[in-house]
Amino acid sequence: GYETAIDSLLRLAAVELSRAIESQLTKHGVQERLTPHQLRLAKQFVADNLHRDTSVSEIAAHVNLSRAHFARAFRGAVGMPPGRFLLEARIEVARELLQANQ
Questions:
Q1: Are 46 and 61 in contact (CB under 8 A)?
Q2: For residue 77, how many other CB atoms are within 10 A of its CB?
Q3: Between the CA of residue 95 and those of 19, 78, 90, 102, what are the distances in Å?
Q4: Would you state the pLDDT for residue 5?
Q5: Angstrom distance (rounded) from CA 99 to CA 6
Q6: Residue 47 has what pLDDT?
Q7: Short-list 81, 30, 89, CA closest to 60
Q8: Residue 38, pLDDT score
Q9: How remote is the C-alpha of 21 from its chain's centroid?
Q10: Cα 45 vs. chain centroid, distance in angstroms?
Q11: Which residues of the chain have pLDDT under 70?
Q12: What is the Cα–Cα distance from 29 to 25, expressed in whole angstroms?
């Protein structure tokens, strides 16, 4: 009776609190990160396509995310926007080519 009703209310309150916390964390970007698998796929796609003009939208599509969500999640996982990551990867390849031709 009485204890069952209290238990039910406590469980309901716990579920609602959990949802509210998850919503706030997501809203503030705390959970905006790629999964390790998505990050590996994205980095491999970049590495495999440095020979051409790859876009952030293409990388996002490769890991099945929208461009906007991918950009936020990538920045959360790597600490820099995907466009900057692409640029730095291209610069590194150019540096290696220059060193190899010296």
A1: no
A2: 17
A3: 48, 22, 9, 11
A4: 72
A5: 71
A6: 94
A7: 81
A8: 96
A9: 20
A10: 14
A11: 2, 7-31
A12: 6
